[in-house]
Design brief:
Number of helices: 25
Strand content: 5-15%
Largest sheet: 5 strands, antiparallel
CATH topology of the largest domain: DNAb Helicase, Chain A
CATH superfamily of the largest domain: DNAb Helicase, Chain A
Helix content: 40-55%
Number of domains: 5
Structural class: alpha+beta
Distance between the termini: 51 Å
CATH architecture of the largest domain: Orthogonal Bundle
Strand order of the largest sheet: 1-2-3-4-5
């Protein structure tokens, strides 16, 4: 939903009634620190609190990792919500009704259908839970879970259940509650009976029978699908819900709703291969863990992953299909898939015949943590496994394998490429010079215009050149500046683009005593999320000058900005004059302009000290 589908006046009402301190306190402990509150940042690991919340400005900023914004952006970041969802969530807390604006009838109907299926899934989950806990048929399911080391509290937390062996036990139970067969089919929990001998289809039967049931939830904890596991070696061992209006297995990660807070706090998300692995690790206190739903990681998972961490750890059984899938895709897809989005990927390889469930049951969380500490990068993992297979392959296969490895190496920095080539040459007994020649060919194939463009990009402006611009904007955002002190300063006189954009927005601030600098810039941050961190930092950072020196500081900042701008103009005019003189063109007017610029520059330089 576009953020502007919620009326602006409603958003302002919610913001004015909500309390950011109260909202943030629901997620972490805050302590009073002067006019503000401080706590340990939920977005990165730290020992000394640098996460600051301002009740007066209704903003937050972490001076450790740079994350910042207002009450809506906090909920968006901590819960992985869209802007509209965050607004509605806070509106519910403060008792303001949010109308839907610009919604088409078909979208309303789709929303109603989604709500119907969510309610049905919840009812089905309760049926599965009751079958596990309170029926004689569920006894064998409970015995199986206990044998797998599942504690009763864990079973309840994950809402595990049992699907009865009957062909239509669930369908019958849901019909008595008013659900139709069409509802059951649309939710993916029932299958239509096939027509026979020209007869019409008659009813439905349960998709899940005689299985342990794992409810699969969205980020809000609402059940959107199910996974089922047999209690013996019957195939298929695992069965998932089909694609539905709610459930898309290539986009979902099991237990993400439980892992997201810890993944954000630790800035690491671990991906394992099965339901029981996730549950066993959560039970052991390792809670930044999720699992794919029978698929490999793809670009469809990235939006979900990127909300909560930029550090991914893939946990593999050494003989698993997961490792084979990683090796198949790493050279051509996985590295580009993750690295192109700034996500670092490590691989945790488990001992032979061990899965995470077994590791924590036998050695506890400490044993698993030791394996995580020994993780290797995805590229190291792929190279090591590829080379370990090389000696067992035909010459043709070895050459093909080596080409794939060299293509992967070409994606790393020059220093790493040299190190990898040396290691590979030693391991395979190949002359390093021959290997480097082959590698150059692979590098040319993998080079992209983007890589060359990145090398040609010039350096950013120096941090010192923007100090006056930044300080001036800080004073404006904190409502310390009177317009007459700015001496008709224009945004075009700013060098840094970000500061230029913010000053342009400052010039648009309405003359309304109820609109503060912080409120005005919060609105800008909502429309331009890339500026949220900068705005919150300037709003909450302590001033470098005393209150009685603010006017002088503002005027000095303006003079410094203007003097530097004149300096840039002077340099450009000097360059143009020299070109004109070399080409024999008249330059008297340029001399006059240069002298005027020199005098103005000198005057502003004196004012700025």
């Amino acid at each position: 939903m576009n953020p502007r589908t919620i009326p602006e006046d409603i958003i302002q009402q919610i913001r004015e009634r909500a309390d950011i301190v109260e909202t943030v306190s629901a997620y972490l402990r805050l302590n009073k620190a002067g006019q503000n509150f401080k706590g340990l940042c939920p977005f990165h690991s730290e020992k000394t609190p640098s996460f600051t919340v301002s009740p007066s400005r209704q903003m937050f900023h972490c001076f450790g990792c740079g994350t910042g914004g207002d009450i809506f952006s906090f909920v968006m970041k901590i819960d992985g919500e869209s802007f509209a969802s965050a607004v509605r969530q806070i509106a519910d807390r403060v008792g303001i009704q949010v109308p839907s604006v610009g919604m088409r009838q078909e979208r309303d109907e789709t929303g109603q259908r989604r709500e119907t299926l969510l309610q049905l899934n919840d009812a089905a989950t309760e049926f599965f839970e009751t079958s596990l806990w309170n029926s004689s048929l569920g006894k064998k399911g409970m015995e199986y879970l206990h044998a797998r080391g599942m504690q009763e509290e864990t079973i309840r937390t994950f809402r595990l259940g049992f699907a009865r062996p009957s062909w239509d036990a669930l369908a019958q139970a849901m019909r008595t509650k008013g659900w139709t067969d069409a509802d059951l089919v649309d939710a993916g929990i029932a299958i239509p009976r096939e027509s026979q001998e020209g007869k019409q289809r008659t009813g439905v039967y349960d998709r899940f029978r005689d299985r342990i049931i794992f409810p699969i939830s969205d980020l809000q904890g609402r059940v959107i699908g199910f996974g089922g596991r047999v209690l013996d070696d019957t195939q298929p061992k695992y069965l998932n819900s089909p694609e539905t209006l709610l459930f898309h297995k290539s986009r979902q990660l099991y237990a993400m709703e439980k892992a997201r807070t810890e993944a954000t706090r630790r800035n690491a998300l671990m991906v394992v291969e099965g339901y029981f692995d996730v549950i066993a690790l959560h039970q052991a206190g390792i809670r930044n863990v999720v699992a794919t739903l029978g698929t490999a990681l793809t670009s469809s998972h990235l939006p979900l992953i990127q909300r909560f961490s930029k550090n991914l750890k893939l946990v593999f059984d050494p003989d698993s299909a997961g490792i084979r899938a990683a090796l198949r895709t790493a050279a051509t897809e996985m590295l580009d898939l993750f690295a192109g989005r700034g996500i670092s990927v490590d691989v945790v390889t488990l001992p032979d015949q061990r899965d995470p469930d077994t590791v924590v049951r036998e050695g506890g969380a400490m044993a698993f943590d030791q394996l995580v500490d020994g993780a290797e990068t995805l590229i190291d993992f792929v190279i090591r496994h590829s080379l370990s297979q090389a000696t067992d392959q035909s010459i043709e296969a070895q050459v093909k394998n080596l080409d794939a490895v060299l293509a992967i190496i070409s994606r790393t920095s020059d220093s790493y490429q040299s190190l990898y080539l040396k290691q590979i040459a030693e391991r395979l007994g190949i002359d390093e010079r021959v290997l480097r020649t082959q590698h150059r060919g692979a590098s040319e194939k993998t080079s992209t215009p983007a890589r060359h463009a990145h090398k040609m990009a010039g350096p950013p402006p120096s941090p010192q050149s923007g100090k006056a611009e930044e300080m001036l904007l800080q004073l404006i955002i904190q409502d310390k500046v009177s317009p007459e002190w700015l001496d008709d300063l224009q945004a075009s006189e700013f060098v840094h683009r970000d500061y230029q954009e913010l000053f342009t927005w400052a010039q648009a601030m309405p003359e309304d005593e109820h609109i503060t600098g912080a409120k005005h810039f919060i609105s800008f941050g909502e429309q331009n999320p890339e500026y949220e961190s900068l705005i919150s930092r300037l709003a909450l950072r302590p001033l470098e000058c005393e209150e009685h020196d603010i006017e002088r500081a503002v005027r000095e900042c303006v003079s410094h900005i203007r003097a530097r701008n004149l300096d840039d103009q002077f340099s450009e005019r000097t360059r143009q004059m020299r070109i004109a003189e070399r080409e024999g063109r008249p330059a008297e007017d340029m001399h006059t302009q240069l002298e005027a610029l020199r005098q103005a520059k000198s005057a502003y330089a004196q004012q700025s000290g």
